[in-house]
């Protein structure tokens, strides 16, 4: 039996406070001097009766924050106040829905849903009834005895949802719950969930939804917190002024989405919002030695530039439009745009992307000229490339260990990002014929011209 | 860094690393030559007298033992590259070869000694060579089956798209074998060779003291050293032997297997999802050398060239069968049936003339006792290692260390520790029926730990988080969350451990310390006694029954369990 909640979903400010995060910081200890800070100075609170969206890029620490709220991970400093008490250990009354569904493959749908009740010591007969109710509510009636592997992705996430709802949590945490699903299935599940919420059929008081899909956040949430990366913190907070059900094609809706795109592209790569406020910090960022690069092959970059330069776009595009046109998610689109910006081939402004004259020249050139342009751009814009090239030129055998540059990158980023950044740099440098890489020996080297 | 050479300069100057490498090679060559010379000498008059218990002799013994090991490994590789390849390439051959391999795998290796010693001594009358070959053959039997199976499996599972690519490029069968199939098989072959070597160390120690009927030969080596130490009740010498073996296994692990495993990783077909481990130091040293590196590169080039030889027809050339394949199948089936009937008839006539029903029943009963013992030890070991392995496996750092320790312990020949246990039993007058039993699993229990750690460390993190989020704790956590997740790993480990335990039964159900001999009731003791007495017919009966038990256990228990676990307890 499900009890509908009584709070009105859209009037957020009226509900009682469920959870409050005070000055949370999460850092991982590194072997070298500086710690890697994932979250810093995070403050937020969630009240009953609202759906809150946590919007940000992958790697911005929003999933980490979700785990801190759930009590699965203690923060390095700061505290989580859950219903007026400091949280220690996994919280009662908080259920989580996982991106990967996290269903136990050896348990049937019924048993998976019953798991939380079983842990609470609910009697078998009651357990069975509650689980069945939840399964029916979420639209999976008839699938009780199926194993997760027999279900499609969308159905599996419904099981994950039923499992989270059956324990009647006060707060439902959803960690990118739709990102592992295909477009149609995700939309179907989103609509169902919003409908159940709006009809107050869900036995929960509020939802915290982590996502990197802007439209999804606008479609579902009453309040959106935009997260910045490196370190992660809340950069903006927006109240969504629409009633459920919402229409994606609505003019106001589209404008709202555009506004978020503009907010999210307003900053240079890896600069956090707090740094932005301080003009001096911004200056520091621009001259900083190393910027983490995404794993982007050069052909993707070239392809993007060619698309931008080609017919309907003519060098300028609206990002949301481009995203839907190229079927790219936020996580693919932003790194791409930022890399182009970094290389001086494009500019991001107000949710638009436009090619620079240099970028246009690149697109219009032949293969060999493109190499020359990219070479010049990399040497000019990427300090690490300059360093590598200088070291290689200096050495009599024109070889140098890659480890050394990775170490250097690690001063400003995590080891994983350092590895990825160098790998991306090598990929671009090979295209530009700047230097080459010997994987066996883990050495960078110059192609010998005299050979 | 030794980056002093000019780029593009083909003249290679030797460096310090070369010098070290060359010295090591020369030393190795001298040792092998000396040891090889000893193999050809006649059998000395007083056999056991030639084994000295002074620790100064141990390094030489260790080298002899290791050489036997590698000789057997070479033989196993040859077997793998012929038998397994033949089975994979010919459907008809596979119908015979694969079941045969299955049976061979379940035959207790130690039982072979009776037959092989007589055979090889007859081949080289009066020379050590015969005894050496018998020992090497014993080790071979502990390695070859497993490796051949790995090769066969790999050859059968070459990805079809690669196969098609090879056909498109017109590779001949020879080229396809060396350019595609062997590289594809290398990771699993290297892994199984490593497992085989572990079993091999156990056998090499056992096979050096050969006592079959009236023949009593001690080949110089660590195994015979321990044998003599037991005879003379010398605890100190046993500790020396254990230390020597530790050194040998460490060296072999560092010099051979770490580099080999690192090297085999490049043939792995999955896309680098696994994080590359740092290169072992031997490989790094080899790369730093100039001359040796050149030599290795040349060697590699030559091998590659041999692999490219165009032997065999191009796939575009049509192969026309002279006899229709249906007809051949029929004839082949007939031939097989005739062979099977003949063998069955021969076995029956031999069996009915040599054994009485009561005798067979008695041996089966003994097999039942050993079965109880094997299952008992597997259960006890599981109760210890499963919780511990899970605890170790759930932390990545602990898991790495535990994996390495378990791998090392599995390679260590457990029989070197037997005397220590036997001393305890003799000293406290314990019941040998019970206390000899743990010895069976001493060497193979590590497979349980090893697999459990692997299972726990690959348990999906989000499922563990979900369990914590829903407050699943205590017995419910074990029952619903952890145990099902590691079940496939546990079954693999328990299967390997119990297989090893059957083999070890022959070595563990009878043990001695000086002139005190302890014996437990069981099939292993039956075979061991029959071997010492040189009673070939009883050894044969015991082996057949033991092989029957192992086959039956695999078919009735382990394989259905493994299938069930594979269906129910795996993550997608």
TrEMBL record, chain A:
Q: Which InterPro entries match?
A: AAA+_ATPase (IPR003593), AAA-associated_dom_C (IPR018632), ABC_transporter-like_ATP-bd (IPR003439), ABC_transporter-like_CS (IPR017871), ABC_transporter_ATP-bind (IPR050166), P-loop_NTPase (IPR027417)
Gene3D superfamilies, per database record: P-loop containing nucleotide triphosphate hydrolases
Q: What keywords sit in the KW lines? A: ATP-binding, Nucleotide-binding, Transport
Q: List, alphabetically, the CDD domains matched.
A: ABC_NrtD_SsuB_transporters
Q: Does the keyword ATP-binding apply?
A: yes
Q: Does the keyword Transport apply?
A: yes
Question: In Gene Ontology terms, what is one molecular function of this protein?
Answer: ATP hydrolysis activity
The UniProt family comment states:
Belongs to the ABC transporter superfamily.
PANTHER family in UniProt: ALIPHATIC SULFONATES IMPORT ATP-BINDING PROTEIN SSUB, TAURINE IMPORT ATP-BINDING PROTEIN-RELATED
Annotated protein name in UniProt: Nitrate/sulfonate/bicarbonate ABC transporter ATP-binding protein
The species this protein was found in:
Komagataeibacter rhaeticus
Its lineage reads: Bacteria, Pseudomonadati, Pseudomonadota, Alphaproteobacteria, Acetobacterales
């Amino acid at each position: 039996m499900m009890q509908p909640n009584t709070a009105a979903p859209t009037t957020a400010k009226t509900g009682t406070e469920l959870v409050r995060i005070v000055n949370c910081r999460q850092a991982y200890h590194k072997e070298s001097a500086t710690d890697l800070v994932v979250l810093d100075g995070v403050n937020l609170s969630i009240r009953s009766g609202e759906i809150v969206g946590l919007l940000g890029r992958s790697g911005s620490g929003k999933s980490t924050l979700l785990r801190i709220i759930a009590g699965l991970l203690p923060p390095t400093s700061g505290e989580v106040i859950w219903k007026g008490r400091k949280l220690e250990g996994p919280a009662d009354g908080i259920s989580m829905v996982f991106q990967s569904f996290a269903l136990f493959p050896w348990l049937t749908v019924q048993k998976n849903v019953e798991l939380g009740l079983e842990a609470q010591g609910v009697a078998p007969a009651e357990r069975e009834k509650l689980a069945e109710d939840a399964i029916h509510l979420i639209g999976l009636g008839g699938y009780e005895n199926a194993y997760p592997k027999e279900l499609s992705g969308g159905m599996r996430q419904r099981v994950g949802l039923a499992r989270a709802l059956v324990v009647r949590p006060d707060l439902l945490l959803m960690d990118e719950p739709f990102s592992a699903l295909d477009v149609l299935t995700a939309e179907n599940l989103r609509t169902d969930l919003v409908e159940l919420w709006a009809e107050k059929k869900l036995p929960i008081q509020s939802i915290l939804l982590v996502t990197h899909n802007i439209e999804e956040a606008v479609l579902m949430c009453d309040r959106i917190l935009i997260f910045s990366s490196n370190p992660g913190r809340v950069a903006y907070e927006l109240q969504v002024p629409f009633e459920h059900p919402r229409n994606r094609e609505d003019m106001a809706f589209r404008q709202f989405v555009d506004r978020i795109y503009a907010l999210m592209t307003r900053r240079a790569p890896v600069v956090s919002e707090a740094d932005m406020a301080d003009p001096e910090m911004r200056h520091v960022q621009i001259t900083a030695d190393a910027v983490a690069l995404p794993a982007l092959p050069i052909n993707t970059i070239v392809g993007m530039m060619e698309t931008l330069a080609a017919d309907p776009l003519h060098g300028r595009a609206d990002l949301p439009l481009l995203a839907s046109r190229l079927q790219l998610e936020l996580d693919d689109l932003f790194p791409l745009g930022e890399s182009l910006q970094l290389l001086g081939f494009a500019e991001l402004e107000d949710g638009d992307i436009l090619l620079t004259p240099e970028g246009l020249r690149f697109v219009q050139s032949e293969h060999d000229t493109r190499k020359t342009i990219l070479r010049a751009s990399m040497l000019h814009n990427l300090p690490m490339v300059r360093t590598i090239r200088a070291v290689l030129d200096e050495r009599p055998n024109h070889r140098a260990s890659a480890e050394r540059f990775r170490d250097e990158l690690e001063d400003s980023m995590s080891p994983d990002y350092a590895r990825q950044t160098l790998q991306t740099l090598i990929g671009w440098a090979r295209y530009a014929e700047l230097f080459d890489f010997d994987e066996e020996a883990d050495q960078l080297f110059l192609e010998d011209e005299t050979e | 860094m030794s980056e002093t050479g000019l780029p593009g300069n083909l003249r290679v100057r030797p460096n310090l690393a070369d010098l070290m490498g060359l010295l090591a090679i020369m030393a190795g060559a001298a040792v092998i030559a000396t040891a090889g010379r000893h193999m050809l000498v006649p059998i000395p008059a007083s056999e056991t007298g030639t084994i000295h218990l002074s620790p100064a002799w141990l390094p030489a013994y260790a080298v002899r033992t290791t050489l036997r090991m590698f000789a057997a490994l070479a033989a196993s590789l040859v077997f793998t590259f012929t038998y397994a390849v033949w089975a994979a390439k010919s459907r008809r051959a596979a119908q015979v070869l694969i079941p045969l391999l299955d049976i061979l795998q379940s035959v207790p290796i130690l039982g072979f000694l009776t037959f092989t010693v007589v055979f090889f001594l007859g081949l080289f009358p009066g020379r050590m060579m015969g005894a050496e070959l018998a020992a090497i053959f014993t080790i071979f039997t502990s390695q070859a089956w497993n490796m051949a199976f790995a090769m066969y499996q790999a050859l059968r599972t070459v990805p079809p798209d690669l196969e098609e690519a090879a056909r498109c490029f017109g590779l001949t069968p020879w080229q396809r074998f060396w350019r595609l199939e062997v590289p594809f098989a290398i990771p699993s072959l290297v892994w199984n060779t490593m497992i085989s070597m572990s079993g091999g160390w156990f056998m090499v120690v056992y096979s050096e003291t050969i006592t079959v009927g009236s023949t009593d030969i001690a080949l110089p080596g660590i195994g015979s050293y321990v044998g003599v130490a037991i005879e003379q009740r010398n605890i100190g010498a046993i500790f020396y032997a254990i230390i020597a073996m530790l050194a040998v296994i460490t060296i072999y692990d560092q010099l051979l297997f770490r580099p080999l495993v690192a090297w085999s990783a490049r043939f792995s077909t999955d896309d680098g999802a696994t994080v590359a481990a740092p290169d072992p130091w031997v490989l790094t040293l080899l790369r730093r050398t100039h001359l040796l590196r050149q030599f290795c590169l040349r060697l590699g080039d030559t091998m590659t060239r041999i692999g490219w030889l165009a032997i065999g027809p191009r796939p575009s050339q049509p192969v026309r069968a002279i006899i229709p394949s249906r007809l051949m199948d029929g004839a082949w089936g007939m031939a097989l049936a005739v062979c099977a009937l003949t063998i069955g008839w021969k076995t029956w006539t031999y069996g009915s003339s040599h054994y009485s029903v009561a005798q067979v029943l008695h041996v089966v009963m003994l097999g039942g006792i050993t079965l109880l013992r094997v299952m008992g030890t597997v259960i006890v070991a599981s109760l210890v290692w499963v919780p511990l392995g899970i605890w170790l496996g759930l932390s990545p750092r602990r898991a790495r260390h535990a994996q390495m320790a378990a791998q090392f312990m599995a390679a260590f020949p457990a029989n070197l520790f037997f005397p220590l246990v036997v001393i305890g039993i003799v000293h406290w007058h314990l019941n040998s029926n019970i206390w000899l039993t743990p010895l069976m699993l001493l060497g193979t229990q590590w497979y349980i730990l090893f697999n459990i750690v692997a299972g726990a460390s690959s348990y999906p993190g989000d499922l563990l988080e979900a369990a914590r989020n829903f407050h699943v704790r205590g017995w419910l956590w074990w029952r619903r969350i952890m145990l099902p997740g590691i079940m496939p790993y546990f079954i693999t480990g328990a299967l390997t451990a119990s297989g090893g335990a059957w083999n070890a039964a022959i070595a563990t159900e009878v043990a001695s310390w000086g002139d005190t001999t302890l014996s437990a009731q069981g099939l292993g003791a039956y075979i061991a006694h029959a071997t010492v007495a040189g009673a070939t017919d009883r050894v044969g009966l015991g082996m057949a029954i033991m092989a029957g038990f192992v086959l039956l256990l695999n078919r009735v228990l382990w394989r259905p369990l493994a299938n069930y676990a594979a269906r129910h307890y795996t993550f997608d």
